[in-house]
Amino acid sequence: MIDKERIQKIDKSDMLSHIIELPQQLQKGWDTGLSGSMSLKLSDVDSIVFSGMGGSAIAGDLVKVIIERMPIPFVVNRSYSVPDFIHPDTLFIASSYSGNTEETISALKKAIKSKSHIICLTSGGAVESIGNENHFPVYTIEKGYPPRAALGFSLGIVVSILNKMECETISLQDLEKTVNFLTDKIQEWKNFSSKGNLPLHIAEKIKGHIPLLYGAVNTTYAVALRWKTQLNENSKTHAFSQPFSEMNHNEIMGWEVCTQTKNFFSNLCAVFLRTENDNDRNLFRMDITKSIIEDSGVTIVDIKAEGFSLFSRLMYLVLLGDFVSYYLAVLYGVDPTEINKINLLKKRLNK
């Protein structure tokens, strides 16, 4: 059971306040991108590399989906290195909320050697220092957030920057309508006492299960990745993701029930994320796949995005997933902000 007293006891750092800021973050990020001094045009570059890790990388995955007709290659780089093709006509975006992500710093230094066009997204740290020392455009994100809770800032900045570069992403009207749309959803979803609270209902179905998250390639799979990482960090639970239609060529066989594994399926929850922007064949594949696996005893959650545009539907699913991970953390009695194992790993790496 969730009540105000339980939330106050568990959510010690008020993660909920960050989750409900998503619409305002998108608007602030958009404004930050517009106010920047970068004069680069899309015609000046022939490729874009978005380099980051964790919560600082997911904006790149979403931008790649939002730009439905990207005229040049757009690569999301999660690595110490950079793609071999990077060269002076590449736009390299270094995204690190803390500014001290060692993989991103390493990749940034390699991008500098390649003489690429470089911009930095950060709240400070080494990335900000390197950017300022080399006179790169530095877009500053507000301090004081867990990196995963600052997605709206970085996403808003990047779509705004690309619009300034004359690369069609979203319009100001789409942004403003989406901000209002998400704000209305937040009023519904933050009321944990409501019987119609969708994310709480989903969290209750997922509770006690390992979520397997399925989205369509080029649309909702980017959101499935976001759900996975939010469930990992906020809810302190394993979660796995696979795209359609790739999973139909391998993972679907993992749903074959045999004597040794039949009791295992009751511990799983298959989550399907859909939008009307998905390829019709992928939507059809989801329907067939669901009918094939539902006899295995697995719990199934099937979600179709609401919204009026691709951007609004993606943001609906992102916000929904953030709320689900939050409510699941409360149901599990774990602090959604705490990341002790990540901090322990970084401490040992620094030694």
Note the overall shape: globular
- Domains, number: 2
CATH architecture of the largest domain: 3-Layer(aba) Sandwich
How far is it from the N-terminal to the C-terminal residue, by CA? 43 Å
What is the overall number of helices?
13
Q: In sequence order, what are the helices and strands, one letter per element?
A: HHHEHEEHEHEHHHEHEEHEHH
Q: What is the tally of beta strands?
A: 9
Query: CATH homologous superfamily name of the largest domain?
Result: Glucose-6-phosphate isomerase like protein, domain 1
**CATH-derived topology of the largest domain:** Rossmann fold
Mean pLDDT: 94
Q: Specify the biggest β-sheet.
A: 5 strands, parallel
Helix content: 40-55%
What are the segments in which pLDDT stays under 50 over at least 5 consecutive residues? none
Structural class by SSE content = alpha/beta
Arrangement of strands in the largest sheet: 2-1-3-4-5
What top-tier CATH class of the largest domain fits best? Alpha Beta
Tell me what portion of residues adopts beta-strand conformation: 5-15%
Q: Rg to the nearest angstrom?
A: 20 Å
